[in-house]
C-alpha cells in the first residue's frame, strides 16, 4: 500500500518534469534585456573526450543547436550563438522578447549517463522615452483639479509617483487611474506646489519624468499691524496690511468711503478725523479672489491729558483763527 503510493508520487514527479530542476545549468531562471546577450552557464566539467552529442532546444521543439561531428544551428540562431562544446555553456546574443521560454540542454557523453538541464529565459524590453503630461493652465487652489499622465515605451510593469522625493499615496485628494498611469489631484492645494516625478519600471530597467507644479492661492484673510500699537494724538501712525497669496496680493484700504492705496497707510499726525474703521482689501490677480480685514484706529492717549490737550488745541486753533 505504502510502496504503491510512493511509486505513484515518483511517477507523477517524473512525468510532470518536477524532477528536472535546473539540472546542470547553474540557474533555472534568467532575465535579459532586448538587444543584449544572455549566457546559460553549466556546471559540467570538461571531459577527456569530446561529447558524442550536445543539443540545445527551445520550448521543447525548436532546435537551437545540435552538435555532433557537425553543428546544426537552428533557423534564427545563425550568428547569434556561441557554444562551448567542452561544458555545454551557451551565449545567446541580441535577444528579443520572442526568445522568452524554456531552454533545454542534453549532453550525451561517451559512456555514462545523459546530462540534462533546463533554464527559463525572460526577455524584457527596457523602459524608454518616458514622458509626462504637465498641466499648462494656471492651477488654482480649491478650484482646479488636474490629471497628470505618465507614459513610456517598452514594457512598463510599474508606475510610481513621487512628490519632492516622497511617494504619493492615494487618499482624499490623490487618486491613480489606468494602472497608475494617471495621477489625479482634486482639488488641488497650495501644498502640491513642487516637483512631481513618475517612475516607470520593469524588472530590468526604470526611467523617470518630472513636472513642476505651481499652485496659485489666496489671498488668505489679511492681518493688519498698527505701529505704534497704542497711538496717541498728534503722533505718527502707520497701518500695514499683509495676506498670504500667490502671486503676491495687491492691497487697498477703504476709510470713510475713501480708497487709499495699500499696503501701508501713513498718518503723519493722528487727529480726531483719522480715527475709525479702516478696511484692508487684498486682491489676487490670478485667482481673482479678494479678502478683507477691518481695523479700528483708536486714540490711546491718556484720558485726562488727552482731552485737555484737545481742548488746548481747540482753544489755540480758534485763537489763531480769531487773530487772522
Ligand atoms: C538584432 O536583432 C534585430 C532584430 O531581430 C536586428 O534588426 C539587428 O540587426 C540585430 N543586431 C545585431 C547586432 O545583430
Ligand atoms: C515558449 O514558451 C513560453 C511558455 O513557456 C511561451 O510563453 C512562449 O510564447 C513560447 N515561445 C514561442 C516562440 O513559442
Ligand atoms: C481626470 O480623470 C478622471 C478619471 O479619468 C476624470 O473623471 C476627470 O474628469 C479628469 N479631470 C480632468 C481635469 O481632466
Ligand atoms: C524608480 O524605481 C526603481 C525600481 O523600483 C528604483 O530602483 C529606483 O530607485 C526608482 N528611482 C527613483 C528616482 O525613484
UniProtKB/TrEMBL annotation:
UniProt-listed SMART domains: IG, IGc2
Domain Ig-like: 130-214, 222-292
Domain of life the protein comes from: Eukaryota
Coiled-coil regions listed in the entry: none
Keywords linked to the UniProt accession: Disulfide bond, Glycoprotein, Immunoglobulin domain, Signal
InterPro entries: Ig-like_dom, Ig_sub, Ig_sub2, Ig_V-set, IgSF_CEA-related
Stored PROSITE patterns: IG_LIKE
Record Pfam families: Ig_3 (PF13927), V-set (PF07686)
Signal peptide: 1-21
Protein name per its UniProtKB record: Carcinoembryonic antigen-related cell adhesion molecule 1-like
Protein species of origin: Solea senegalensis (Senegalese sole)
Amino acid at each position: 500500500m505504502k510502496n504503491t503510493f510512493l511509486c505513484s508520487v515518483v511517477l507523477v514527479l517524473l512525468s510532470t518534469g518536477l524532477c528536472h530542476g535546473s539540472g546542470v545549468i547553474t540557474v533555472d531562471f534568467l532575465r535579459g534585456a532586448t538587444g543584449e546577450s544572455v549566457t546559460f552557464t553549466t556546471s559540467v566539467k570538461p571531459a577527456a573526450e569530446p561529447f558524442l552529442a550536445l543539443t540545445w532546444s527551445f520550448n521543447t521543439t525548436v532546435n537551437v543547436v545540435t552538435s555532433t561531428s557537425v553543428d546544426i544551428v537552428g533557423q534564427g540562431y545563425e550568428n547569434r550563438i556561441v557554444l562551448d562544446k567542452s561544458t555545454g555553456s551557451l551565449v545567446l546574443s541580441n535577444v528579443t522578447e520572442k526568445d522568452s521560454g524554456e531552454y533545454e540542454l542534453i549532453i550525451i557523453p561517451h559512456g555514462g549517463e545523459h546530462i540534462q538541464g533546463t533554464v527559463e529565459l525572460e526577455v524584457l524590453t527596457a523602459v524608454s522615452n518616458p514622458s509626462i503630461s504637465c498641466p499648462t493652465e494656471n492651477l488654482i487652489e480649491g478650484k482646479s483639479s488636474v490629471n497628470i499622465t505618465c507614459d513610456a515605451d517598452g514594457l512598463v510593469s510599474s508606475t510610481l509617483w513621487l512628490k519632492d522625493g516622497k511617494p504619493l499615496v492615494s487618499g482624499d485628494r490623490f487618486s491613480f487611474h489606468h494602472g497608475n498611469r494617471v495621477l489625479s489631484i482634486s482639488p488641488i492645494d497650495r501644498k502640491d506646489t513642487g516637483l512631481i516625478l513618475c517612475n516607470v519600471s520593469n524588472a530590468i530597467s526604470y526611467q523617470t519624468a518630472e513636472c513642476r507644479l505651481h499652485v496659485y492661492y489666496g489671498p488668505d484673510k489679511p492681518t493688519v499691524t498698527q505701529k505704534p500699537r497704542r497711538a496717541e494724538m498728534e503722533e505718527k501712525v502707520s497701518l500695514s496690511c499683509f495676506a498670504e497669496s500667490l502671486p503676491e496680493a495687491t492691497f487697498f484700504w477703504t476709510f470713510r468711503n475713501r480708497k487709499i492705496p495699500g499696503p501701508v497707510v501713513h498718518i503723519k499726525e493722528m487727529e480726531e478725523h483719522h480715527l475709525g474703521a479702516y478696511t484692508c482689501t487684498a486682491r489676487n490677480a490670478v485667482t481673482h479672489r479678494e479678502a478683507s480685514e477691518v481695523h479700528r484706529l483708536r486714540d490711546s492717549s491718556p484720558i485726562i491729558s488727552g482731552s485737555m490737550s484737545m481742548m488746548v488745541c481747540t482753544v489755540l486753533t480758534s485763537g489763531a483763527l480769531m487773530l487772522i
